[in-house]
Design a protein that fits this description.
- There is one protein chain.
- The protein has two domains: 63 residues, no CATH class; 337 residues, TIM Barrel.
- The protein has an eight-stranded parallel β-barrel with strand order 4-5-6-7-8-9-10-11, surrounded by seven helices. It has a two-stranded antiparallel sheet with strand order 1-2.
- It is globular, with a radius of gyration of 21 Å.
- It is built from 19 helices and eleven strands.
- It has 473 residues and is α/β, with parallel strands linked by helices.
- 49% of the residues lie in helices and 11% in strands.
- Helix 2 packs antiparallel against helix 7, helix 3 packs across helix 7 and helix 5 crosses helix 7.
């Protein structure tokens, strides 16, 4: 690959960034953050192949220079398990499906004045597909937003629900497991140093013993953990999470947790670092449960399950504790309960998607075009007895990929209004989850590991591999 694309990008940044013998230097941070970074973020998503690769490489290297470094939250969680870190905060893990650059900017604008360091950005295997955001792109966009807003410190990017699809597993188990392995390799190489393995889909309650019910779950998770350990950068221990109960199914219990963890530890190569956390089911459902009119049903969540299983995870297995999924659509008064019940991490996604779609500034004509696309492209997904409102609510997330360029290209006044609302929501959640003033403890547990890449690492298209065939539906 020639460097013409890189030279063009540097010229457009008007001296705010230079490259000398492959080494990036930031000459003018203020100038870079003013307008240059916006254009670079867009090039990292929509540029032609060589331009795309150059933009992503520049963003990675600028992060290294500025002290914004992709990192693993493993040591923070393990310190929590040892009792060396207080249990009085719950780490938010935020999925950005729509307008990722603007949404990430809103996250940082809420986080920086509060001193939030314990914060994760994540994207699930299924989301990578329907939002059209591969790992290298997702990381690059968040890095650009961090530079734009002046964030400094460890940047936790996570592969959420790197899930084995049960239907595909039954049809061809080797191919489905390989698809998850391939995506994991791509994500770790891109800088995702936090991976949540979700093989809970393979739990089979028809077996007579809990160990048998969980066997495929813990054995495949252990194999994937070993796969990750072989690929993690020197000096980085990737945070790996497991899951014992499929979200939306029966609530988890201690017997399941112990059976899973004991089986997982038996299956893991001796001496290898294992899990830092465990995801459980407490009564929630991803995206909430829409009623016939499209509004959400009130969810009954068993917060005591969180406290009980977090304690077992810490005391018996040295992990940070339990993780809650599917929480973003819960009522506002519920979020502080996660802190009170000592949840380690809570995953938040659909609520932010809803804020974008339903925002008063969001163009009505664009929303209707997206909905029309959903009704046509995904008509076969409407279930019997499901109203159109329920169908649209459950399926509209799949409009973000096909309309990604239009969402990025919305007028600045529209995007600013949406950013402001998101910033307020993120700020509220950070306050409720008590992650303010966590910068010091986060940095103490996550020292900077300098990881430089070459332009060639990004290939012609900005990522090592972009095979979409294995993505979950």
């Amino acid at each position: 690959m020639t460097n013409q694309a890189l030279e063009t990008l540097l010229a457009e940044m008007e001296g705010s960034v230079t490259v000398d013998d492959g080494k990036v230097s930031v000459q003018d941070e203020k100038k870079l953050a003013s307008v240059s970074i916006d254009a670079l973020a867009r090039k990292a998503v929509f540029g032609e192949a060589k331009e795309l690769a150059a933009a992503r490489w520049l963003l990675w290297e600028m992060g290294q220079v500025l002290g914004i470094y992709p990192a693993s939250i493993n040591e923070l969680y393990m310190a929590r398990g040892r009792g060396e870190v207080p249990l009085n905060f719950t780490v938010p893990a935020i999925n950005l499906r729509a307008m990722a650059y603007d949404s990430a900017r809103a996250v940082f604008r809420a986080a920086i004045p509060r001193g939030v360091g314990a914060l994760i950005f994540e994207i699930a295997r299924s989301e990578i597909g329907y939002t059209d955001q591969r790992p290298a792109e997702y990381l690059s966009v968040i890095m650009a937003a961090a530079i734009k807003e002046g964030f400094r410190g460890p940047l936790f990017i996570q592969g959420d629900h790197f899930q084995v699809n049960l239907k595909k597993f039954k049809a061809d188990p080797d191919a489905e497991v390989k698809a998850v392995f391939d995506l994991t390799a791509e994500a770790v190489k891109a800088g995702f140093y936090n991976i949540d393995i979700d093989t809970s889909t393979l739990v089979d309650l028809s077996y007579p013993t809990v160990d048998e019910q969980q066997r495929d779950n813990f054995e495949i998770c252990a194999k994937l953990t070993a796969f990750i350990r072989e690929r993690e950068p020197k000096g980085v221990t990737v945070s790996v999470g497991g899951e014992i109960g499929e979200i939306g199914e029966k609530n988890s219990d201690e017997t399941e947790l112990r059976a899973y963890m004991d089986g997982y530890n038996r299956s893991l190569p001796q001496g290898m670092v294992g899990l830092s956390k465990i995801s459980i089911q407490t009564g929630t459902a991803h995206g909430g449960v829409p009623l016939p009119d499209g509004t959400l049903a009130q969810v009954k969540i068993d917060f005591n399950v969180i406290k009980e299983l977090s304690k077992v995870a810490r005391d018996a297995y040295g992990m940070g504790g339990a993780v809650q999924h599917g929480a973003s659509t819960l009522p506002d008064e519920a979020f502080n309960q996660f802190v009170q019940k000592e949840a380690t991490e809570v995953h938040l996604a659909t609520g932010f998607q809803n804020m974008v779609y339903d925002h008063e500034a969001f163009p009505a004509d664009l929303r209707e075009r997206i909905y029309d696309h959903i009704k046509t492209a995904h008509a076969n997904e409407q279930k019997e007895g499901q109203t159109e409102e329920q169908f649209i609510y459950k399926t509209r997330k799949k409009g973000f990929g096909p309309f990604k360029a239009e969402l990025w290209g919305l007028p600045e006044d529209v995007r600013a209004a949406i950013r402001k609302s998101l910033e307020e929501k993120f700020g509220f959640l950070f306050d409720q989850l008590n992650v303010g003033d966590t910068v010091d403890v986060t940095r103490r547990c996550t020292p900077y590991v300098e990881i430089h890449k070459s332009l060639a690492d990004y290939g012609a298209g900005g990522a090592v591999e972009e095979d979409t065939s294995g993505l979950a539906d």
